[in-house]
Queue: 3 jobs
Job 1
Amino acid sequence: MSRVFICNKQIVLSIGLTMGYFLYLFLGAVMFQLLEKQAEADSRDHFQMAKLQFLQNYTCLDSKALEQFVQIIMEAWEKGLNPKGNATNPSNWDFSNSFFFAGTVITTIGYGNLYPSTVAGQVFCVFYALFGIPLNLAFLNLIGKALNTHLVALGKCVRDTDNARVLRILVMSSFLVMGTLFFLVLPPMIFSYVEMELWRRVLLCLYHSQHHWIWRLCIGDGPKQTLHLHLSQSGCTLDNLRPCLVGSRL
């Protein structure tokens, strides 16, 4: 009876932690969207006005005016705006991008030049990470323990068979092939559908598989960039599970 009660308690705690984790991401996405989207729209309008003024007066352009316009372009780029675009470009702080950014904050992945530009957004980001990172570790530990339970059962099955050595080699080979396929072969093929060159796709997959990020390898402004956002976070989240699995195994 007590064993059934403990089992039910663990299930309830697991479901509660999972729901709390995604609710925390949802609330973070809503807050980042509220704090940053209007500021981004104002910056976009300001840049478009400066761009129009430049186009109207380019015939009398001098070095000072050119430096001023370059400075405006740099400020727009630092705020995540595409200088080649127009006012109808998708927002960097709609709900899907805000949800993705919230995920990169609590998983400590980070992502390129997407960051809050307002003081309120930056302050909220600090406290959001302060409480979100421990929640993320608890969630990954829960997943790691669940996976480890099945891996231990699989290990017992391997040891109990007559051809344990052959089966062990087969399992290791399967993991190697699956890991190479899902982390180094399949992602570059998907990225090629999005927008990147071959060498950049492979290098980006290597960086993400090692839980690193590099600013120069961030995606551009292609219409299918959302594919990469979800792939990046999924790959790094799976990579985060390795310490959980090792720790629970020990």
Job 2
Amino acid sequence: MKFNIDPRLSRLVRLTLSAPFALFFVVLIRVIRPVFLVRIGVMRSDRIGHFALETELWLLEQESGVASRPKRSVDIWFAPEPIANRVLHKMWKQVLT
């Protein structure tokens, strides 16, 4: 049995339910920032060229020390849908974690 729900209503419900969680994580990150830096990044995954090149350039900058990150920090990456290449996505997950 499938219900026909208005997409606007569905989106409003999702935003209403996810807002408290997002607010909690934003406050948590801001509180621990003086001690530990948390950086969140979005990979451009809808185009394979951007997905491969921009991520590789970031990794090379980290290795060479051009854009070194602070000692007490962690980088969290995510790739929003649509993902252009699932195999490349799986590889980046292995490399970046």
Job 3
Amino acid sequence: MEFAFYICGLIAILATLRVITHTNPVHALLYLVISLLAISGVFFSLGAYFAGALEIIVYAGAIMVLFVFVVMMLNLGGSEIEQERQWLKPQVWIGPALLSAIMLAVIVYAILGVNDQGIDGTPISAKAGGHYAVRALCSGGRTGVDAAAGRPGGGVPRRS
């Protein structure tokens, strides 16, 4: 899964760079979808299946529909439509198609590499789990608030 992590990370970086540098908003949104799918692939490769699924459902699904709706509501005029025809030549689709094909290969690789062992590890009691959760919250829970407020030492991890 380390291979899938690096490939998905590289695709996310490349697609995000294209989102930032592309002048056409529709094409930038398509690259943003590829970037979000690559980030979900990173989550899947790290074993965070729920976070990866939420990334696809919430961001690549719902929020991207909203973005596309807003862009389409801009209602391009006649000169913009001709400009779109010039931009939508087949060679324009080589980049997104290549990144999508690599993502598909990584997803197939990840699906074929999954074993049916499920979650393994040592079970712990609810009391011990609560103790660890409270300890983690007390030790570093304020760090984000301190950093957001600009306090000195806000980014320094604490020990309890």
